[in-house]
Design goal:
Layout: H1 7-31, E1 35-41, E2 44-50, H2 52-61, E3 64-72, E4 85-89, E5 92-96, E6 103-106, E7 111-115, H3 117-128
Antiparallel strand pairs: 1-2, 1-4, 3-7, 4-5, 5-6, 6-7
Helix pairs in contact: 2-3
Length: 141
């Protein structure tokens, strides 16, 4: 006799997969010791290797603001996320919006979440030291 799969069993597997991916991502970010940052706008293209202290500062800046997930996909926030401006460490790519909204999109998880205004300011201040310019603007890709 063939047993039918119940809807709750499918839901349970889906939730387990999401938890494994998210927890794995959090551990990779927590244990990261180095990373990269990339910026491209017009004639300006910057690619840098981040130091341990930079990664530590970014980890604090990118902390979730009271676990406020904006949504899955880049369309949930009006920030204009782009691969032309990101930081990458722990195997995850954190894309920043073109304006100064305090949200970040994680490319690999297709997840957008809010960071604190202070974290957003600290993130952009750190990257400005390397020649990044904010707000990123909407005039170029």
């Amino acid at each position: 006799m063939v047993k039918r799969i119940q809807w709750w069993q499918i839901l349970l597997v889906f939730v387990a997969i999401i938890l494994i991916v998210c927890v794995g991502g959090i551990l990779r970010v927590t244990l990261a010791t180095s990373g990269t940052a990339y910026y491209h706008k017009g004639d300006t293209e910057i690619s840098i290797k981040l130091s341990q202290s930079d990664v530590n500062a970014l980890r604090e800046s990118l902390a979730v603001d009271n676990y406020r997930v904006v949504g899955f996909g880049t369309g949930f926030a009006r920030c204009g996320f782009t691969e032309n401006c990101y930081v990458r460490f722990g195997g995850l790519t954190f894309m920043m919006g073109k304006d100064d909204c305090p949200s970040v999109h994680i490319k690999e998880l297709n997840l957008t979440y809010s960071i604190t205004r202070e974290g957003n300011d600290a993130l952009r201040s750190l990257l400005t030291q390397y020649g990044f310019s904010f707000p990123y603007g909407y005039d170029t890709e």
